Amino acid sequence: RVAIVLFTADLRLHDNPVLRAALSAAESVVPLFVVDSGVRDAGFTTPNRAAFLSECLADLDRGLRARGGHLVIREGDVVREACRVAAETDAAEVHLAGGSSGYAQRREDRLRSALAADGRRLRVHDAVVTALPPGAVLPSGRSHFAVFTPYYRRWSAERLRPVTGAPRRVAVPTVSTLPLPAAASLAPGTASPALARGGESEGRRRLAAWLRSGVDAYAVRHDDMAADATSRLSPYLHFGCLSPVEVIDRARRRPGGAEAFVRQLAWRDFHHQVLAAVPGAAARDYRTRHDRWRTDPEELAAWKAGVTGFPVVDAAMRQLAHEGWMHNRARMLVASFLTKTLYHDWREGARHFTDLLIDADVANNQLNWQWMAGTGTDTRPHRVLNPLVQARRFDPEGEYVRRWVPELAGVAGGAVHQPWRLEAVRRERLGYPGPLVGLPDALARFRRARGLT
Ligand code: FAD
């Protein structure tokens, strides 16, 4: 008997219920990854994500080879390719991780009916991509939690499934495969210069280091942008190189239970359960009836390039371009700056994040953007993050700004946050732009647009 494991957002051998179930259902297993034309057509195969993905696949293949097997690569429409491999190997079952996006749900439905037409079965496994499956906890009479705090209360009280190790052996039947895809064949274009390395091995190494020497200080240091004191595990969680169940389980074993860190992982599940219940939430428009987002291509370009004249905003945008990753506090303040201070459509910002972030996903990117823009779930729609106040609180010495904005490297201390206050001669020599907008005017514009004045 043969079973297929169709890898999607679960590119790992450890704690993978999909792989485990397939191995216990059949003597041999086809570990299949399809370079899916649908994902590419949806604009998700960017150079940064392609670079990370190709490393994930190479690492997964190495892990499988060490266990007597190998990864099977196909390319094209995921449903057609999976059915083709099932026919070639006469597999009775295809095993797949449940996903929350509209795309994942359609993929699942299409695959189920295409397999059934051939007398084969799709088996979907939960708690692979998220710690708790969407819908595992629900408010009475509703399809999902719309507010985080009550969700978190219920989420925390649930027992997670037990963590499992990696299999010892994976026997793969004879089946043809394409070569492992190089980044350039997945997406043309240049990746950011300082991307994290992809793959389960690297993810596990980082997780072990984080649990050893980072997580205990998370509660007090996570918002300090210069300290860089968050886990940076998001790309590994996104591609499934790490299991959220295992990350939470191991974090909870720390003295004190690493509650602040675990809470962030609950945010991840929270957005997934909103999206699973309301797939259209990813594309929701602004919610007030009378306001209209502003359109100003030059302003948008300045935001993207990190030349707005607000040093903390520019530092964050340049970190994104350089690393394909950005600190959470920085994501919040640049999103607020774009959608509230400049009053641009959040979807422009979300698109730019998707173009560059390794960890960009529909649930966390689109819904966090809406949370910041005041158009989404559990939101304080009228809260505006003043970039200057944020900078003083979360980068008091200006270290984060000097790291990313070399024009300002010679400006000492917190003065770096307001270069417009420097003497004119010195300011001119910096070669750094003046502020794109006046903050009081921008705030007044925002309040008018939202009908608050
Ligand atoms: P840590 O602080 O170490 O947190 C641990 C893990 O918890 C993260 O790896 C992540 O999986 C999860 N997490 C933390 N904060 C959040 C949050 N607010 N929402 C959901 N999950 C969270 N996260 C993504 O994974 N993908 C995205 O596309 C994404 N887009 C964002 C867009 C905006 C505008 C904002 C404000 C936030 C976004 N986030 C996104 C959430 C958060 O910024 C990142 O998960 C976090 O910065 C990743 O860094 P870390 O791994 O060091 O996080």
TrEMBL record:
InterPro entries the record matches: Crypto/Photolyase_FAD-like_sf, Crypto/Photolyase_N_sf, Cryptochr/Photolyase_FAD-bd, Cryptochrome/DNA_photolyase_1, DNA_photolyase_1_CS_C, DNA_photolyase_N, Rossmann-like_a/b/a_fold
Domain of life of the source: Bacteria
UniProt cross-references to Pfam families, sorted A to Z: DNA_photolyase (PF00875), FAD_binding_7 (PF03441)
Entry similarity comment: Belongs to the DNA photolyase family.
Domain Photolyase/cryptochrome alpha/beta, first and last residues per copy: 1-130
Classification via SUPFAM superfamilies: Cryptochrome/photolyase FAD-binding domain (SSF48173), Cryptochrome/photolyase, N-terminal domain (SSF52425)
Keywords noted in UniProt: Chromophore, FAD, Flavoprotein
Name by which UniProt lists this protein: Deoxyribodipyrimidine photo-lyase
Cofactor: FAD
